[in-house]
Automatic annotation (TrEMBL):
<dbReference type="InterPro" id="IPR001387">
    <property type="entry name" value="Cro/C1-type_HTH"/>
</dbReference>
<feature type="domain" description="HTH cro/C1-type">
    <location>
        <begin position="21"/>
        <end position="88"/>
    </location>
</feature>
<dbReference type="InterPro" id="IPR010982">
    <property type="entry name" value="Lambda_DNA-bd_dom_sf"/>
</dbReference>
<feature type="region of interest" description="Disordered">
    <location>
        <begin position="35"/>
        <end position="70"/>
    </location>
</feature>
<dbReference type="Pfam" id="PF12844">
    <property type="entry name" value="HTH_19"/>
</dbReference>
<dbReference type="GO" id="GO:0003677">
    <property type="term" value="F:DNA binding"/>
</dbReference>
<feature type="compositionally biased region" description="Polar residues">
    <location>
        <begin position="35"/>
        <end position="49"/>
    </location>
</feature>
<protein>
    <submittedName>
        <fullName>Putative Xre family DNA binding protein</fullName>
    </submittedName>
</protein>
Length: 104
């Protein structure tokens, strides 16, 4: 059975999510370890989000599958990175410029 490929819009949103998380984390002066500690998300998961992958393996290629962060993870990241969650998930929002911090 052929594997299902995600639609282009989804793939673009996932790729941009990783770019946004990394850009925000670096702009806020955080390491992956610090972001992991402050959110309770495993550092490995943050790394996977930033690199658009997950821990599952594609059966055909053996490579990591595409990232797919859970909704609660997205809200935790948005809160800690001080942005609205829509910035993270909306592919129409560009990575640059980095949004200013929203109130905490």
């Amino acid at each position: 059975m052929p594997s299902r490929q995600p639609p282009d819009a989804y793939a673009q949103a996932v790729r941009l999510l990783g770019e946004k998380v990394r850009a925000l984390r670096e702009a806020r002066g955080l390491t992956q370890e610090q972001l992991a500690h402050s959110t309770g998300i495993a550092r490995n998961q943050i790394q996977n989000i930033e690199h658009n992958r997950n821990n599952s393996k594609d059966s055909a290629t053996g490579r990591p599958g595409p990232g797919n962060a859970r909704l609660d993870t997205l809200f935790l990241l948005a809160q800690e990175l001080q942005v609205d969650v829509t910035y993270l998930v909306d592919p129409r929002c560009p990575v640059d410029p980095i949004p200013e911090s929203v109130g905490r």
